[in-house]
Amino acid sequence: MKRFSSRRDVLFYGLVIPIFVCCIALTVIFALKRAYLPWIGFLLLDGFILWISLCTYYEFSADSLAIISGPFKRKVEYWEIHAVFRTRDATAAPALARNRLSIVLKSGRRVLVSPSNEPEFLNELRKRNEDIEFSGVL
Question: Would you say 72 and 47 are in contact if contact means Cβ atoms under 8 Å apart?
Answer without folding.
Answer: no
